[in-house]
Design goal:
- It contains one helix and seven strands.
- The chain has 149 residues and is mainly beta.
- The longest helix is centred in the first third of the chain and has 8 residues.
Length: 149
């Protein structure tokens, strides 16, 4: 997949609600994790914002990620954002190998309480699961990976 440009301006086609992140969700639907990369300073950042948080340049594009990373921290969620979300589940911050981070669900078994921090440093890889409520987007989730994968 090649770089994807964010939509031109805040408030363009959809009143500003989704134009910034639409390319992210389109890539996710196609099974690719992307993140903003600044063309001026090379910063990888997430979540998407209209300008680079390091140099304030608006010249950035979505670039594909390897989807490989390491768990920075995690917690177990027992009360989700809605009844559609099966609990408990593990939520973690993943450091991606390109130098950016994202908050996501960690697919581990069992998804219940465990020793605090036991997953820190675990090598993980992205996959995608359908959001359990409308609009049913494909959400990135991370699973432990074997060495070399
Ligand atoms: Zn920058």
């Amino acid at each position: 997949m090649s770089a994807v440009e964010p939509s031109a301006a805040p408030g363009a086609a959809d009143g500003g609600r989704g134009s910034l992140t639409a390319p992210f969700w389109e890539a996710a639907a196609a099974g690719t994790l992307v993140r903003p990369v600044c063309r001026r300073c090379g910063n990888n950042f997430f979540t998407p914002t209209w300008c680079c948080p390091r140099c304030q340049s608006e010249e950035w594009s979505y670039e594909p990620s390897s989807g490989r990373g390491t768990v920075y921290s995690h917690t177990t969620v027992h009360r989700g954002p809605g009844a559609e979300w099966a609990v408990p589940y593990v939520l973690g911050i993943v450091d991606l190998e390109e130098g950016w981070s994202m908050l996501s669900r960690l697919v581990v078994d069992p998804p219940d309480d465990r020793e605090p921090g036991v997953l820190i440093g675990t090598d993980v890889r992205v996959s995608f699961e359908r959001e359990p409520r409308p609009p049913g987007r494909m959400l990135p989730v991370f699973s432990p990976r074997k060495a070399g994968s």
